[in-house]
Amino acid sequence: MAMNRRELLFNLGLGAVGGLTGLPADDPTRERYAAATRGLAPLKITDVRCIRVRNLNVVKVETSEPGLHGLGCATFQQRPMVVETAVREYLRPFAIGRDPDQIEDLWQTAYTSSYWRNGPVLNNALSGLDQALWDIKGKRANLPVYQLLGGKCRFAADTYRHCHGRDLTELEDRVHQAIEQGWRHVRIQLGGYGSPQLSRDPDFKAAGFGSASDEFMAPGPYLRVTPKMFEHIRHTCGEEVELLHDIHERVAPIDAINLVKQLEVHRPFFIEDPFPPEMNGYFKMLREQTSTPIAMGELFNSPHEWVDLITGRLIDFIRVHLSQVGGLSVARKIAALAEWFGVRSAWHGPGDVSPPGHAANAHLDLAIHNFGIQEYVDISDELREIFPGTPTMEKGYMHLNEAPGLGVDINEELAAKAGAWDTGQGLWKPVRRRDGTAVRP
Ligand code: MG
After folding, report:
1. The whole model's pTM is what?
2. Pair (197, 325) in one structural domain
3. pLDDT along the chain (441 residues), means of 10
């Protein structure tokens, strides 16, 4: 179709520059421009609230346009009330009256407003604001957030399912079940993060050391049984299924290196968290000894933790928890950095991510080329009712709806009825060695 100069400029996004001034009042170009920009009328943030639902913290940002609001994940289930206070006492007065369209500027200025930065509490509060602003921008543009990030690289996000078993038979059953349900990737663990042979009555408890509810983990049985677990699952569940495992930092670094080397023969998809973040220096030693793919980063809060591992090509999957690093704005930059170093994404996505947080993960998953895999846990029907629009699952794939923004809303009445967890419920229990020595984490 032939286009006149004004239409051409308009279609190039240059309508304003191309000179709407001087056009006759009835010129159709003027009308189209006005229609396209109507949604971008000046807007102000009018309120920022932290809503607590069970173990989840969600930040709701309201604007001067009635009904236009955004949601972001600020879940730090071990310290929810501190994040709530940070949102109420610091982020709310900081953000009210500002322009929600300026996501990057708001992020940068809020980030440095405390001078000291990169901690989990303030990062979670910031993530709540950040993700809510992306949600608002998507609604204003009438586009899902993945479109703002560059559009789809894939039709859905492939996920891995947790399979934990108290013994090899139970684990094998759970892996078979996951495969039948359509999963191609499973994380296999015996017991929790340790071995089933662990004593229920370790010496420290008999001696009255620590608390009765403290957990016990002995590295020896774990290190011996884990290669057997891989061998068993490979043998009984076949070659096709991709196997993942989380060491969860619970053994000495040199023992972790030895274990990861032994697992190489079973072709794991990845082995996660061989070392605590404080031991990042060991990754070079690990890399020199095995080609087993390594995932790391769910405990990271600061660029100081991920930049060297990515640029040194010392890991294969970056695992950060979006709200712990400060939100979607940070994670998309991490993804861009990682792409140039062949590092893929595996965003942390367990039960302490809220539905808007799962959606933020999935929007990024769809839009980045270096997507690796998405962690998934079941989201209850009750939570889906509180958060309409929560991503759905089919045959191991996570699907987003096509609503503008993140696509997830909140029913505040149902959220209030569900209530917030007692703060003790989210606490990470101490784990100890036989003599009572505390294990990290
Ligand atoms: Mg983990």
Report:
1. 0.90
2. yes
3. 39 37 54 52 95 98 98 97 98 98 98 98 98 98 98 98 94 98 97 63 91 89 94 98 96 97 98 97 98 98 98 98 98 98 97 97 98 95 98 97 98 98 86 92 84
Q: What is the number of structural domains in the chain?
A: 2
Domain with 27 in it: 5-37
| 20 and 152 co-located in one domain | no
Cα of 299 vs centre of ligand 1, distance in Å, is 8
Asked if residues 196 and 409 have their Cβ atoms less than 8 Å apart, the reply is no
From start to end of 281-330, where are the E strands?
Answer: 294-296, 317-318
Query: What is the 3-state composition of the chain as percent helix, strand, coil, each rounded to the nearest 5?
Result: 40, 15, 40
Is 362 inside a domain boundary?
Answer: yes
Q: What is the CATH number of the domain that holds 312?
A: 3.20.20.120
- Give a yes or no: residue 429 inside a domain: no
Please identify every residue annotated as catalytic: 193, 248
Tracing tokens 């279609």 back to the chain, one arrives at 11
- Residue 401 in any domain: the answer is yes
The 10 Å Cβ neighbour count of residue 193 is: 20
Instruction: Give the distance (Å) from ligand 1 centre to CA of residue 295.
Output: 9
All residues with CB under 5 Å from ion ligand 1? 246, 298
